[in-house]
Amino acid sequence: MARFFKLTCLGLITPVYCLAAVFIVDTTVDLPDIDPGNGTCKASDKTGDCSLRAAIMETNALEGPDEIRVPAGTYLLTITGDDDDSMVGDLDITDGELTITGAGTDSTIIDGNSIDRVFQMLTTGVVIQDLTIRGGLGENNIGRGGGIYILGENELLLQRVHVTNNGANIGGGLLAIGDPTVTIDSSLFSENFTVDFGLANRFGSAIYCQTCTLIINSSTFAQNFDGSEAVNVTQGHLELLNSTISGNDGGAIRTQNSNAFIKFSTIINNGGPNLSNFSFDGSHIYEIGNSVLQSDASSDCQSGDLPPVSVGYNVTSDASCAFTMTGDMQNTDAMLGALLDNGGLTLTHKPEDSSVLLDQIPILSCTDNQSMAMTVDQRGFTRPMGTKCDIGSVENPSDVNFADGFESE
User: Fold this and answer.
1) pTM to 2 decimals?
2) Which of 48, 137, 169, 280 is deepest in the core (most CB within 10 A)?
């Protein structure tokens, strides 16, 4: 049976009614809605079940803010085809102000089944939280976006989401193009990949962001593969804070004619350069501070590229970035542990007790990309724990216990 109800909002002075549709999915079967826009999520005459696809079709047809609640289960896409209204293929979201909420990344799994990408966003104000997106293959639309494809001047927030095992020619995990804003918070991108469809060069095994704004906070990008860098930002804007980029096959971050700001992040053990930065006329701003760059397989900064500008307190394993500002340490082993669950919501590299990263940053320099005081590390633990902040995404010691609530696969 379909699950649907409305929330009524009243203005404080003049009565203003804002009807929010809330659909509760109650079947994992992939079926379209039989009558989109009638306000009832119903996927078949026989069962009347509310499928995820049917719920999205209903919210697409309804004006105003909507919510879809997706209980525990694996939701496998099975209807092949190509359209932009979610009847077949991927799940197309065309009406804004939509929140999709799962029961946790281990519990709610939306699987593209390699028949298409999982989500296509053609609207703004979309929030996806507490679920896993996997198994998408962006072969349609010239191999764009395996897990998620967001197009146009729209906004997307991913919160406590695991994006894994998705593939495309560009943007294996996520493709953002046409001036959208994508915010990623407390999430994990792992084992996404780029595919050679014989069409174009492969870019962005985890994310490809062209003419977009990409804001990443307290998230991890690990073991994305097949030759291209994990995160590629072209003619866009990148902000990376309190995050980890580790063990990716083709390098960590590549920026082209883009502005970038990196603070309190740990970038380590990637197969290609940790940072690659190209600016056609040198006019773009690229700053990094309070961060760790470590590499055995390649260089910290791509040879021949314009290196980022250090704003201090960076630790690098070689001298390829030429960082010489206050607190910078080149040719230095940061002494980081393996990528593990060190508490909090995502996997991290914890500094060893004798690491040079500890207690290096004065309080006045312990700030984020907007010069606001930092109060937590990637895990949500207190920062600083002593009189100074530690370099990188994780503070040490880590003897504070927090409830997790985020389950990674």
Assistant:
1) 0.92
2) 169
